[in-house]
Amino acid sequence: MGSLDSTFSSHYSEQKWVRQINKHFAREVRIDVENVPVSVFNVPKSLSGTKMPDAYLPQVIGLGPYHHLRPELYQMERYKIATIRSYLNSEQTVNFHDVLIERLKEIEPTIRACYHKYLDMDDETLAWIIAIDGLFLLHLLLQYSQTDYIQSKKLTEGAVMYRDVMVLENQIPVILLKEMRKTLGITSPNADDDEELLSMFVGFCEAHSPLKPANRSQFSGKTNHLHLLDLMYLLIVNRRATKPALYREPTKKEKEDPQPDAARDHEDFIVNVDDIVEAGMDLGSVGRKAVMPIRIVKTLPWDKISNLLGLKLHEEDNNDPEVEEISIPSVTKLIKHGGINFSHTTGGIRDVEFVEEEAMLYLPVITLNGDSEVLLRNLVAYEHAASGSTLELAQYVDLMCGIIDTVEDAKLLREKGIIKGSLDNEEVADLFNGMNKSSASSSNEIVEKINNYYCRKPVVKLRRFVENRVYASWKALTLLSTIFLLLLLLLESFCQVYGCASFFGQSN
Fold it and tell me: What is the pTM of this model?
């Protein structure tokens, strides 16, 4: 039995496991869970291992079976129970176990089907966790059912608590909340839709979403969202019901023969310098003289010189950077060197657009406050975990991470009305610089359009040529200059000792 023991945790014996399997099998035969979608996922490892893993963990309140029993969060248990008692009436409190707990135990297979991770706990424990955390969440969101009350309560009380409510692994499925409200008589047992519950959810999203959500009218009477985080994601993505502007599947050619950036840059530099030289030749004798040094520098075999000296023209870095971002110039460079301007759009992430004729990049307004990084990270994590997602939000976040490098970049976007909120410019820059590239599996059409437009600018062509062809060979140039100087010094010393007039055919 030694090998068999290793498959069981310390809490379970083989006999107990057999009893539970028998019970679960009998219940699942009676309850159809095939149509119950998995909605509460674990954070993908590709994201949870980044610079800020705490963003994916609740700090004060653990909701649901993933985090409820964590020792550092259990101190809030009394607060949860006190909150629930104020939420329920006396009759609901007296019959709490016989009515609600027993009902949750009856639908225990449905509860387990909602969670991606196996729940290593018995039915009674699971039912109590869902009951306590579900009712606590309902009480917390009750204030958001009143539209005129939302703004006064926004981020004024328990900011960390509201932040924890949006953590991916801290979600309570809507299907369970609706069942609890029906069981307690809060809503009609035969009601498929719960308008009050939807109103609370939408009110919370409108108060805390970093990006402007879709209008309430677009979701009136529809409660097919899976949980609170899922609804916020849907409201953000569906701000404008049009074809996504940021997402494009890579073509077959790109998949089979992706051209390395270095090789593509090398070809571009040669073309760029040829364009500059041709433009100078058209200016007459003055232009020809001006571009003569560039022609000489271009014709030098820098690759061979560097290789002969044991140097490399382009440094190779085999180590992955701590934070990987998409390749796009910053806001400052796009404005200064590319002549590209920025403007805010009233739409959402699907309205991101680069209009080449106007040299204008349109971006939605984003409001960044103390909990915005946690919200963005968990929204992107949910987008990754959910099957069939097009990573539209991840593409937008990657774009923002790519164009915001410094405090000046954040300042420029704030001046354009694109960035709002309580975070200062330095905090905004730190936020986007700390987030890793998350949409590597797809191409970003907007980024490609911007890069193509930017690289066609003559000043950009010359700048990139100098940076990549001359500056990159500074080691070779320095070594050659040193050798040339030493040769001149040796020649001078030789002439001082032996005289050089005879060698040059001069008497003096």
Answer: 0.73
